[in-house]
Amino acid sequence: MKILVTGFDPFGGETVNPAIETVKRLPDSVAGAEIIKLEIPTVCHKSLRVIDEAIAEYDPDVVLSIGQAGGRPDITVERIGINMDDCRIPDNEGNQIIDEPVFPEGPAAYFATVPIKAMVQRIQDREIPASVSNTAGTFVCNHVLYGVCHMIAVKYPGKRSGFIHIPFLPRQVVDKKNMPSMSQEMMVEAISAAIEAIVETKEDIRVTGGATH
Fold it and tell me: Among the options 143, 149, 165, 196, which is catalytic?
């Protein structure tokens, strides 16, 4: 099995993005799966073109994207991507798309096709905080989650995809009072555990992952 793992470059005034820093530090093989690491730009549409090119080149079985969710206290495995760009800030090329679909011809939403609850459980088994998230926002992270799902549906049938949000690194919150963070080492371990679940889980486990928000 080959798994393409993507991570965004820094954005929003930050000098580092834990997403790509975590991806860079992943092992080259997890649970027997080859890990292909890819940095993607925090730019709407361009990010998807970079991923599309990598899928065509490497032919991975799974695409797992990692993004920063500053303010979240734990590892959050995303359930769903929606067909909407509504950027609260400009992306890294100055685009600020408001109330436009990611793909006009696409459905309203796509569910991730990786075993999200097994991934959360496997991370928690490592004594690392993790939960299911039911919103990936409306910025470039959701853009990539939805966009990769749509790309697979129309161009690469049979492949699977998912998205994980991770917190700030400790060095990012030195000047951010009461802001949660997580160590780089813990995030690498968490993503590795999630990948193990993807490789080893044929059917997702049936446990609650519901939320009221």
Answer: 165
Decide if 60 contacts 35 (C-beta within 8 A).
Answer: no
Residue 44 is among the residues annotated as catalytic for this protein: no
**Which residue bears the tokens 């459905």?**
107
Cβ proximity of 5 and 30 under 8 Å:
no
| Residue found under tokens 């919103």 | 135
Known active-site residue 78: yes
* Model confidence pLDDT, tens digit, residues 162-207: 999 999 999 999 999 999 999 999 999 999 999 999 999 999 999 9
Tens-place pLDDT, residues 50-109: 999 999 999 999 999 999 999 999 999 999 999 999 999 999 999 999 999 999 999 999
- The answer to whether the beta carbons of residues 164 and 102 sit under 8 Å apart is no
pTM, to two decimals: 0.97
Measure Cα distances from 184 to 38, 68, 78, 85, 94 in Å: 18, 12, 20, 29, 29
